[in-house]
Amino acid sequence: MGFDRGLGARISGEDPLSEEIIRKKMDLFAYFFLIAQRIQYVTDQVFQRDGLTTKQWLVSLAIEQGFEYPPSLSEVADMLSSSHQNIRQIANQLEKKGLLEYFKDSNDRRVLRLTLTDKSKEYYESKSDEHLGYVLKIFEGFSDEEIKDFHDHIMNLYKHLDPIYDEFRNS
Predict the structure, then answer these.
(1) Which domain holds residue 37?
(2) 112: which residues sit within 8 A by CB, 6+ positions away?
(3) How many separate domains does the chain show?
(4) Using one digit for the tens of pLDDT, what is the confidence trace for 118-142?
């Protein structure tokens, strides 16, 4: 299946290698979305058993591992390329489940900081082997060398995407 004709893309030129690379780039672009959808579906199925969603897990992960201090709602939203309102809704759901707490910043009382509760930490610790198993299963068809290369390529893409993201975000 190829996505080289999507979104009105026109591929034409004299260099067939160039056309092939452009087609592959279009395929990659589309497959990133399809892969993200499938990973979210699988992850939602795993977390649904415990009444959670992939997005709730991602917010928890950002709070726990993305900062060296309890982050604000805005900081988590920025990290996850999401809106303040969206993260607030997810954080409210986590709070209702007893997995997250808000507290006011000591320097600026308008800023709400987020921290995971002991219940949350216990949950993720009790499920870590199970969750790791699903991640490993997703990548079991790759050799160690392929994983290292894939990781390097994805990190390179992520770094390259940052200024493009900022450009659109600030326009």
Answers:
(1) 1-49
(2) 72, 73, 102, 103, 104, 105
(3) 2
(4) 999 999 999 999 999 999 999 999 9
